[in-house]
Design brief:
Radius of gyration of chain B: 17 Å
CATH architecture of chain B: 2-Layer Sandwich
Distance between the termini of chain B: 9 Å
Oligomer: heterohexamer
Number of helices of chain B: 2
Bound molecules: adenosine-5'-diphosphate
Structural class of chain A: mainly alpha
Strand order of the largest sheet of chain B: 2-5-1-6
Helix content of chain A: 55-70%
Number of strands of chain B: 7
Strand content of chain A: under 5%
Largest sheet of chain B: 4 strands, antiparallel
Distance between the termini of chain A: 56 Å
Structural class of chain B: alpha+beta
Order of helices and strands of chain A: HHHEEHHHHHHHHHHHH
Shape of chain A: globular
């Protein structure tokens, strides 16, 4: 669990208000504390929920109009199915009584008391907070595999990641599993949430192959512009907004006075990363690239997520700087060298920057990081954590996507891909009143 | 009757409309098209990938007019639309065999 | 008013944190409680306010581009006019001193103290919370009557519902009126808010008649697809987000530790309902229908609203299940059998699922429901409440819409409907730069 | 700083709950108070952050599709760059130790303790709250100068306003500077935030000149409709939502029981103003104008911002009424008489209504206003403040924009403006799949 | 072969399609255009500024048919489309020199 | 001069553009249209209501060329575009009476 640093917070509070004399009964009463923390955790959970809208807008905005309905539907259903799956099973695997450091095994259907968690908020408040986190991990993949994946295949995938793949990682790091015991720091989930989604996206996109027309015969990538930069940008703003629930909310405690600093580190990393990407693309491509800069903001948010509570504000700016560099060159590398077609840049943003941000905690954590003179132990632990999670996710999703491919099939037919998934998979168009440049079905 | 088909820069549409009005041409039909000719489009970079926008937006203005006005109209159209830069576009002239004004049923020159 | 279960919450809190010994002054002080509850209530109110954006996006997304500006304007103005009308008069009818169980009669223009309410938060915080609820009821109708209603007619309607129709129902159930005395349970307003809007929508859509082209001469319905599934989906995500203010916020108390469970029941019902609709449409239509599934999520949210605080998490999943079934067959029934043209499915979602959800409380309420062995009394009360509200709303809106029809007129001219309400009612287009397939006015 | 009225709030709370006997330890403990206030301030800050999305949607919606990506990018980058600039320098100028009432001079890079502020919340929570306010001021200009400004010019401008122009004004009013000492009331920033942005917009739009085609040779203005009224409306709803963080959040205290009333005054002013604009445009133009009514809602929000905590609910309705009148005639005046081309109406909304709302505090403030029998002193102070800020901003931005013009250049080339800034400044289109009426670059 | 080019109100498209089907015409191509003729557009006010919507939405239906069916088709088209109000539009008739059915390579009348 | 009007599947546009380039054809105008022919559209269900998408998206490519190149071009076009499936579309050939290059004022064959 997240460390409660209440007493420290109170002390801090006392120091900050030196002009006020404090009564002896200064400490916050338990009932009060629980109320404040529950209010805080729930509101943070609602903000994180809203990130689903952000993902939906980013993913649909960066892909083509003929597939917009399909992407929307995937985003809606991974949350819906994931909510049920996680409540029924995933939560128990993640936070149930520890089985050998690997998996949890109690709390199915929210039916156990879960006293071993020592929660300072009602169990249900904790479950909803964890549910929206699980859904975030699940939804990342839909963008990377967009515009060519069978809907049924995606439905199966999203159930499985919420049922088992994500919860196992979550157990390792947040549920009392082996990584948490090693001192691995991933405060709000750069690795647990984002890189899980990112690696799954990597494997999914690699196995399904690029969209028709993405690569020329000579392997040169073609640009396939998204259909609405305005919706993509709206999505990024929504995600940034939701991230203020994601990171500060992960204290699970409004009485934890570090929430102010966490808000600042979150914001600064995103701001710096977006700025860095703007500058890099300006230099490299001759003009500041809008959609890449949008990715840049997300890259900073993903990267700071692990260390948002452990680094200083100035440290967070450096993390943002690195994230900005990683995301541009990472996306180019995936696109040009690996030749994996990721329409929205999800692998670069969530996979690479999730990993990078987690590792950087080993350098920038003010209490344990190398740059603050605490040696390289934390860095090593961070690297082990990142590596172990990558192996687990890559292995399991490799099996999963191959099973799906062999059974219901992973990819739609060529003709369906060309005319658009909306018509073929859902029987309707997303923009029935507009003239679409390709593959629209008029009147 | 002849049909003039003017393919030119979208920003010239307003001027053409004005000219038509002045010349007493009472009908035209406009559509947005994309074209390429000597003007070849441009290279841009999107998320690090180069791509060519090789069709450029043009406007197509079709107007069916009586034979006798064709020559004069062509000349004033050229004057109005010409910038002298590549991309000015073309005017094509077609023969129209018949025309019907749906509202009245009138045919031929009466219909336009 | 909502029951304060603070003491229970404290006891629960104590049980959940068994490792901590609690001081004697454990109970939350009144000033602290008021602060926490005010913060909670206001933030919930803001979320509920944001549902206006959700409604606007859903309604415009599911209708045609040529009427988008008109729908936006209706959504904006029902909130603006409704806010003023409710503040000036509606609130007093709803929460003023009770007159024979039927209506309240004090607090016009927020000028009375309203001590009889025994509020634990400042009166103004309570008024803003109630204002955004009133606006929700009002806005439901705009979707059902979309694409053919005169703007002036809608303005009049929305003033009247906020002034009197909704407040009277609100008084019966939440303002100390006769239904509240019978023990009718409608925690956050499946009936008070949603079915009021739903029944008004039913009457409005029936009186105004279907859009041109909706039904063939032989009565066969035609599909008139909406112009932006992405905006409709964004709207649904916004509504879902706002519902976390709507339901948990209805405790009016952040110190009420049931807010965690209410968040969970709300989320699970929506998730299950969306999933169920996806499955039903997949089976019935051959493909999972995007826009109907969006309706499905809303159906679950509407249905759980009455019982969100009274049912268990597992109970909420069953309520979601029923809502999903009701919404698909309900919308089909309205469309095909009743031949009432409801472009966005508002009657099915808010009317039918609001009623269904309220009645299901009689079965699923853990403390009073039939399925928990408490007999059918609650069920009967629920049915009476649902029926009484339906009768009141149907009767008053029937009179209202007929008066409007006879005076300023309800429906736009045929030509205006064909070319679009934006041009004729507001003198501008919503998408001036895009080529619209029908009825656009270029350049 | 904002006045803490805690003790009053507690007394009020006690009076409102007369049935409860209150223990002696009634006052809220410091640690509890700090926790509640921090939670409140942060959540308000997040809401204000989200206003960035609102501005982005309003500005892009009210301009043409060919420039949508550019506007998005400007909105994203002014926040990103502004966040860094304000954290590094602006905050210190605004809230650092006072230097002669004019500017602050400590707290660069968040490195000082800032004890002179006497904050009741952690410093970082205060910085994030102030950061999102600064970004709001910065972003206002992008709309007024839309569709013709060079991106690099905008980037420079937005850094400078966040670094120095806004912080100086902020210091005068909120940082202990000379205006605060005079008793100038601008609770949440009608003047500090909105009119700063508005006057900068005025100067920027005047210097850069109108868009091609905006004025005929005879000076008659032409309408250049925006490309998406739905996105513009979404933006207005988001802004309204965010304003509930902006105004009530400016208490910085959830324990300050005036937050309920502030929410109400904020909402009522917006509702009345939107309604008034609807009526005026209906009468003047023959039809209720959608986009102007959207501006109307914002006008009310801007105008009430100064006095939201000082006026009564009924007073706020009058402020909304005046704002509605000012915005319509103000926008017409700017457009037709001054012949300054402001595509989104930012000068009218933020400049004129910001000034008007601030001045009206001198009439409507219940404790000091002329209408409540307190003479015209407050009114005079308000006028001085409004005037001084206008002079400062107009002078500095006049110099700034002229320097930019003389160096990197302010305006794009004629051809770029015609074909659209997206292609020329960023190398991509915002709506690659749609047929755009003018200046699109197909395939 | 002749090409008939019907420019009319968008709402008439369905009726034309039905007529074509009944008449056994097996091919047509439809595009959205904007036009002006006698019907001149309308003035509106946007944010206080007057502007003219001077091109109106029209649909253009092109169908290439054998010479012999032209006259009959014209007549039934007029009957179907006519409302008698300004804005009904025009039908223009062009000569088509050749036609190719890409799928089979057939030419001329066989191709249509 | 003749105008070739190629109506075919949108996904073939790139191939046609390439062919034109290779054949030294220096101008063309493209528009998105919808059509029906033997290929009749498809039935879908939206919110439980069946509806027919009976016009399919097609691309219309117009190019005006000198008489002598028509036959050769037609053949290579067929080769390029043909899939053998219904929906391949048509090429229509029209006579062009005159052409004007607006930029230079050149007329006739010189203009294209
Ligand atoms: N032979 C042609 N057939 C059809 N359209 C043509 C032809 N030549 C030019 N066009 C149209 O005219 C537009 C402008 O032509 P272009 O050659 O670029 O400029 P210019 O005519 O000024 O040299 C093209 O984009 C295309 O739409
Ligand atoms: N001479 C013409 N050339 C091309 N298009 C024309 C011509 N005359 C009319 N049209 C088209 O027909 C449409 C209807 O014509 P209009 O004159 O308004 O109605 P009516 O034919 O009923 O008098 C116009 O909007 C325009 O698109
Ligand atoms: N007689 C015609 N007149 C105009 N357009 C036609 C005609 N016949 C076919 N078309 C166009 O060609 C497209 C393809 O024709 P279709 O008959 O479906 O395929 P195919 O030519 O391969 O049999 C149609 O969608 C329509 O746009």
């Amino acid at each position: 669990m997240k460390k409660k640093i209440l007493i420290f917070a109170v002390v801090l509070a006392i120091m900050l208000i030196p002009t006020l004399t404090l009564a002896a009964d200064e400490e916050i009463g338990e009932a009060t504390k629980m109320a404040i923390n529950t209010v805080w955790t729930l509101l943070a959970a609602f903000l994180v929920f809203f990130m689903q809208a952000g993902f939906a807008m980013v993913e649909t905005g960066l892909t083509r109009a003929k597939n917009a309905g399909n992407i929307i539907m995937k985003n809606l259903m991974d949350f819906a199915i994931g909510s049920v799956a996680f409540f029924a099973v995933g939560f128990a695997f993640m936070f149930g009584a520890d089985q050998g450091g690997f998996i949890g095994m109690s709390g199915f259907f929210g039916l156990d008391k879960m006293e071993h968690l020592g929660l300072g908020i009602p169990l249900e408040a904790f479950i909803i907070f964890q549910t929206v986190f699980a859904a975030t991990a699940a939804t990342i993949v839909s963008g990377a595999m967009a515009e060519r994946t069978k809907f049924i295949a995606y439905v199966i995938y999203s159930a499985v990641i919420s049922l088992i793949i994500y919860p196992v990682v979550g157990h390792w790091v947040w549920g009392g599993g082996w990584l948490s015991k090693m001192g691995f720091i991933d405060f709000a989930g750069s690795t647990v949430v984002h890189s899980v989604g990112g690696w799954a996206a990597l494997i999914g996109a690699a196995i399904i192959g690029p969209r028709i027309g993405k690569y020329n015969k000579d392997g040169k990538p073609n640009a396939i512009p998204g259909h609405s930069i305005t919706l993509a940008a709206l999505g990024v703003f929504i995600l940034w907004f939701g991230w203020f629930g994601f990171n500060p909310g992960s204290t699970l405690a409004g009485t934890d006075m570090s929430i102010g600093r966490i808000s600042m580190t979150t914001n600064l990393a995103a701001a710096v990363s977006a700025t860095v990407v703007m500058i890099i693309t300006w230099i490299r491509y001759g003009k500041p690239d809008v959609s890449m800069t949008l990715n840049g903001a997300l890259a900073g948010l993903v990267a700071i997520t692990a260390g948002c509570a452990a680094v200083s504000m100035i440290g967070s700016m450096f993390i943002g700087l690195v994230a900005g560099i990683v995301v541009v060159f990472g996306i180019e590398f995936i696109d040009r060298v690996l030749k994996i077609d990721d329409p929205v840049g999800a692998i670069g943003v969530h996979g690479l920057c999730g990993a990078t941000g987690t590792i950087l905690v080993g350098l920038f954590a003010t209490e344990t990081g190398a740059f603050y003179g605490h040696g390289f132990n934390q860095l090593l632990v961070q690297a082990i954590g990142v590596g172990a999670v990558a192996v687990w996710v890559i292995a399991t999703t490799f099996v999963l996507f191959n099973i799906i491919k062999a059974t219901v099939g992973l990819r739609v037919e060529k003709e369906h891909e060309e005319t658009g998934l909306d018509i073929h998979e859902h029987g309707s168009e997303a923009y029935a009143d507009f003239h679409i440049k390709t593959a629209d079905t008029l009147f | 009757m002849k049909k003039l088909e003017i393919i030119t820069r979208p920003e010239k549409l307003e001027d053409v409309k004005e000219l038509m009005n002045k010349s007493g041409i009472c009908g035209m039909t406009v559509s947005m098209v994309s074209g390429c000719g000597l003007q070849k489009g441009r290279k841009e970079i999107y998320r690090g990938t180069e791509y060519t926008l090789n069709l450029l937006p043009k406007v197509k203005i079709e107007t069916v007019v009586a034979d006798r006005v064709v020559d004069g109209l062509l000349e004033s159209l050229i004057r109005t639309v010409k910038t002298g830069e590549i991309g000015d576009g073309k005017i094509f002239v077609y023969n129209v065999e018949d025309a019907v004004k749906i509202r009245t049923g009138e045919r031929g020159d009466l219909a336009i």
